[in-house]
Structures are given as structure tokens and as C-alpha cells.
């Protein structure tokens, strides 16, 4: 994904001149060795060493430059020696991008036989990092703290995970979401304050009349459609029955036309996320379900029925999980299954991303029974098994709240021969009774963004970057503690942060 090649993480080492130039020279050399080591071994973003900072002027200049830089997606700080933290105040105040504080040390172990006072003065991360952390806390700035030896895999993987959040956060700051049609009439949970979303989360929610998309279909050539149909036949199972049914194949051709028009429109609008509404399709042949599925698999955000918040979230998950194998998708809770502890069949009318498929998707055409349009083409498959996270963002009137729930994706207990839509089947953690109740107590949507590739820590990082409430539902959740958190958060967010 382009944002990964266009972004870098800056690394800043805190020091001071108290111990003389030779100490700073050694700090510099150690930092260079460390960053070269970190950069070997597949971090998603390159780390650029920006030198030591030894005075308030140097800190301030560097953080201002970082804030204004298109390249810089975040900063990692490390205090090799002691770095008096008043030096960092103005710089940190000028800096609103993601911050990671690495609490490490150049040498893994204490050299018991040779350690002397010079060694102690040079290797002061143990207390230098605490001095720095104090001022970050005093300024009430969120950041990720990673503790460990810099060569260890646990440290590398935490930095790697955080970098993916930085890429996602950066992408959201310039993301444009195009809505084709409004939110579905009368639906509450998918709606919200678009102005506040842009202020707090960065993305812009735009609108495009469906008629403009319908007209765009006139620009699609027969050759383009033929090429796209070939691609469908290569990528998906296409039965002879469908291929030889003139009416059904016409529906696939119309789906291809819609997909090509949609791609052109998104490009023209410079949009990487969109919403549709089955009730607002004037001038289109069918609900563009196949197009939505395929675009999602390429990393475009999608929300059905005008759900722009979930469109932003599916885009975020795609960017954060770029290149990872599990996949992510828009999803909807559909049908409950009260057997064996309980589970939920997940699906949508059509729009589930083949990125999470556990099999080669089948291309099919069936009537939709809603929206009054022609039968739409769609990809039918079952999601693969594995642990994942379903998340949503809701607007509570005075703030946004993210809810993230761990789920265990299972295989359905039997084939679903009469249900021609893509689906997943999952058990919420800790079980359906607690997981579903907590989600509903938190006011969560029926729509969600689902990912196999991300961790709760990453969603915590994201929520902290956005200064957004996060409620987690996992294997440790109990309803009484969850309710207590809800009540406490009403105080914290109601009177503390957002008014
Ligand atoms: Mn829906």
C-alpha cells in the first residue's frame, strides 16, 4: 500500500551536554547501530534517525519539523543518557502525531566486572526514560511505551504493530469517504456527526448523487467490461449454468459495468472509502454488491446503507493490516445460534470482502428481494476459521466510542445450500451471553469492521491517537465490571475530555 512507501518514522535520542561531547558522540554511535538493527528485519515503516537532541531549542525545532512533515508518520524517542525533561515541553506541545517511547538500553546486560561510573553516566535509560515519561504524562499526551531489549523480537513486534497504526492514522487524516445515497431512513446507530468526525478522526465524509454514478456508466467501454469478465472467470468459480444462462450472465456484465464506473468515480473524487444504500440506486441495474466486495478486498473502505463510520473503519483495518494474510471486512450480525454456547451467523445482503474467504469464492446471481432492482451478482463463500476482532464506532452525542470485541471464527455446522451470500460464523468472547450483552450495553452497531490481522493493543493505540473512548470485550469481560466501566467513562468523557 502506497502510504507505507511514502511514510517514515523518525527516531530521536535524548541526551545532554553535561557529560561532554565524547558521551554524546557515543550516544550517537549507539543510536545509529540500534536503528540499523531495527531497520533490518521487516518493519513496515523505515526508521530514520534524526540525531540526538541536547537542548530545548533542538527538541522544539525537530518536533515542529516532524509535525509539518508529510513524510513523518510518528516519532520514537529514547533517552540514552539523562535528558532533563523541561527541554521537551515546547516540542511535545507542538507535536500531535503518534509517539512511541522506547525504554531500552544499548547493552542487554550489566557488565558486572567492568562497570564503572563512566559506564553508568553513559547508560542512563533506566532513569532518563522516567524523567522523559514524567513530562509526557504531565502534558497528558497519549503514547505507546515499549519496554525491552531492542534486539528482542517482542520489542520489534510491538514497534511493528504500532507502525501499522501510525500508517492507518495518517491515512485517516486525508481519507475521503463518498456516500452514494444517504444513511438508511430512520436508522440511528449508523448515523452521526460528520463534522465532529472530521475534527476528531480526520476523515472527510463527502456525498455523490447516485445519478452521477449512473451517468459514469456511459463512459465504460465494452472492451473494459470484457476484460473484467475474464478476470472474474479467472479469480472465481463460475458455473457452466451461470455462464450459459443469458439473463444471469447479463447481470454479471451489468455488475462489471457498475464496478468500472464506481472505480472511475472513486478515482475522480480521490476517495478511498464509500457507502451505498440499496434504497438509492436510481439509474443503476442492481445493488453494486460484487463491486463493493472486490473493492474492499483491495483495501477500499466500505459501509452499507450509508454507514460512513464503518466505511472509515474498514479502510482503517485494511491499511493497518496491509500485506497480512488473514484479511478484514465489513460485516453484520445476522442470525443467532443458541447451541453449544451460542454463536452468530455474520453476513450482509452481499457485501462481505473475499479477503477473509476460506475458499475460492463462487460468482453467483440471485434476486435480492429488497430495493426493487434486478438480481445482483455476488461472491459467495464462507470465511476461514481463526480468532479475530469485530469493532465499531458509535456517536453518543457528546463523543465517539469505539467498541472492540474478540471473536472466534468457526466453520458453520452444515452447508448453507439455500443462502447464497458470503458469511462468517463466530462465537463472541467470552461467550455469546456476555459478549452480545456487553456490545449492546455499549450501544454498538449491527454493522462492524472485522479483522483477522490486528490486535486489541493496536486498536487501543488508535483510540488513544484519536483521544476516543475504547471499550474492549474479551475473554476476561464480566458484565458487572463492564457496566462499571460504562458508568466511570460517563464521568471521564462527559466532564473531562470532550466538552
Ligand atoms: Mn446492513
Sequence-ordered SSE layout with sheet pairings:
Layout: H1 2-5, E1 8-14, H2 21-39, E2 46-53, H3 56-68, E3 72-79, H4 89-93, E4 99-103, H5 117-122, H6 125-138, E5 144-147, H7 153-173, E6 176-180, H8 194-200, E7 204-208, H9 210-216, H10 222-235, H11 240-244, H12 246-269, E8 273-275, H13 289-297, E9 301-303, H14 308-320, E10 328-337, E11 343-347, E12 362-365, E13 377-380, E14 386-395, E15 400-410, E16 423-428, H15 432-441, E17 447-451, H16 456-465, E18 469-473, H17 479-497
Parallel strand pairs: 1-2, 1-3, 3-4, 4-5, 6-7, 6-8, 8-9, 15-18
Antiparallel strand pairs: 10-11, 10-17, 11-16, 12-13, 14-15, 14-17, 15-16
The structure holds manganese (II) ion.
Residues 304-305, 332, 348, 447 line the site of manganese (II) ion.
Which terms summarize this structure?
alpha/beta, six-stranded antiparallel beta barrel, 2 domains, five-stranded parallel β-sheet, Rossmann fold, 499 residues, single chain, 17 helices, binds manganese (II) ion
Give unreliable regions as ranges.
Answer: none
Structural class computed from helices and strand pairing: alpha/beta
**Strand portion:** 15-25%
- Shape descriptor: elongated
Q: Count the DSSP helices.
A: 17
Amino acid at each position: 500500500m502506497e502510504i507505507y512507501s511514502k511514510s517514515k518514522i523518525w527516531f530521536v535520542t535524548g541526551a545532554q551536554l553535561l557529560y561532554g561531547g565524547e558521551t554524546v558522540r557515543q550516544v550517537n554511535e549507539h543510536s545509529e547501530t540500534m536503528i540499523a538493527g531495527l531497520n533490518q528485519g521487516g518493519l513496515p515503516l523505515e526508521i530514520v534517525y534524526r540525531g540526538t537532541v541536547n537542548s530545548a531549542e533542538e527538541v522544539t525545532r525537530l518536533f515542529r519539523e516532524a509535525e509539518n512533515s508529510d513524510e513523518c508518520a510518528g516519532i520514537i524517542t529514547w533517552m540514552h543518557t539523562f535528558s532533563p525533561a523541561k527541554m521537551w515541553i515546547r516540542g511535545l506541545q507542538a507535536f500531535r502525531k503518534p509517539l512511541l517511547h522506547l525504554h531500552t538500553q544499548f547493552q542487554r546486560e550489566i557488565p558486572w566486572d567492568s562497570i564503572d561510573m563512566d559506564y553508568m553516566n553513559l547508560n542512563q535509560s533506566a532513569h532518563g526514560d522516567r524523567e522523559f515519561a514524567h513530562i509526557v504524562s504531565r502534558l497528558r499526551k497519549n503514547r505507546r511505551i515499549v519496554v525491552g531489549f531492542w534486539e528482542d523480537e517482542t520489542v520489534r513486534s510491538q514497534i511493528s504493530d504500532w507502525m501499522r497504526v501510525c500508517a492507518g492514522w495518517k491515512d485517516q487524516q486525508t481519507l475521503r469517504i463518498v456516500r452514494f445515497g444517504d444513511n438508511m431512513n430512520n436508522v440511528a446507530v449508523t448515523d452521526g456527526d460528520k463534522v465532529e468526525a472530521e475534527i476528531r478522526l480526520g476523515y472527510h465524509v463527502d456525498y455523490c448523487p447516485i445519478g452521477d454514478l449512473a451517468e459514469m456508466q456511459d463512459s465504460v467501454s465494452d472492451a473494459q467490461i470484457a476484460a473484467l469478465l475474464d478476470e472474474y472467470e479467472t479469480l472465481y468459480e463460475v458455473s457452466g449454468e451461470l455462464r450459459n444462462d443469458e439473463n444471469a450472465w447479463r447481470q454479471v456484465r451489468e455488475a462489471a459495468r457498475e464496478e468500472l464506473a464506481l472505480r472511475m468515480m472513486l478515482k475522480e473524487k480521490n476517495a478511498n472509502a464509500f457507502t451505498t444504500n440499496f434504497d438509492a440506486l436510481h439509474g443503476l441495474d442492481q445493488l453494486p454488491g460484487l463491486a463493493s466486495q472486490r473493492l474492499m478486498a483491495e483495501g477500499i473502505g466500505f459501509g452499507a446503507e450509508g454507514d460512513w463510520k464503518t466505511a472509515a473503519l474498514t479502510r482503517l483495518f485494511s491499511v493497518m493490516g496491509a500485506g497480512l494474510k488473514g484479511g478484514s471486512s465489513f460485516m453484520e450480525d445476522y442470525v443467532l445460534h443458541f447451541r453449544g454456547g451460542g454463536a452468530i451467523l455474520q453476513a450482509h445482503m452481499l457485501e462481505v470482502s473475499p479477503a477473509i474467504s476460506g475458499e475460492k469464492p463462487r460468482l453467483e446471481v440471485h434476486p435480492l428481494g429488497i430495493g426493487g432492482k434486478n438480481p445482483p451478482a455476488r461472491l459467495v463463500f464462507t470465511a476461514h476459521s481463526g480468532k479475530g476482532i469485530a469493532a465499531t464506532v458509535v456517536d453518543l452525542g457528546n463523543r465517539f466510542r469505539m467498541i472492540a470485541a474478540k471473536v472466534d471464527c468457526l466453520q458453520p455446522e452444515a452447508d448453507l445450500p439455500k443462502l447464497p451470500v458470503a458469511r462468517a460464523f463466530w462465537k463472541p468472547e467470552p461467550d455469546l451471553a456476555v459478549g452480545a450483552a456487553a456490545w449492546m450495553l455499549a450501544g454498538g452497531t449491527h454493522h462492524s469492521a472485522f479483522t483477522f490481522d490486528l490486535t486489541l493493543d493496536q486498536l487501543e493505540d488508535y483510540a488513544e491517537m484519536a483521544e476516543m473512548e475504547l471499550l474492549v470485550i474479551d475473554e476476561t469481560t464480566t458484565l458487572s465490571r463492564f457496566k462499571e466501566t460504562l458508568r466511570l467513562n460517563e464521568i471521564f468523557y462527559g466532564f473531562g475530555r470532550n466538552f
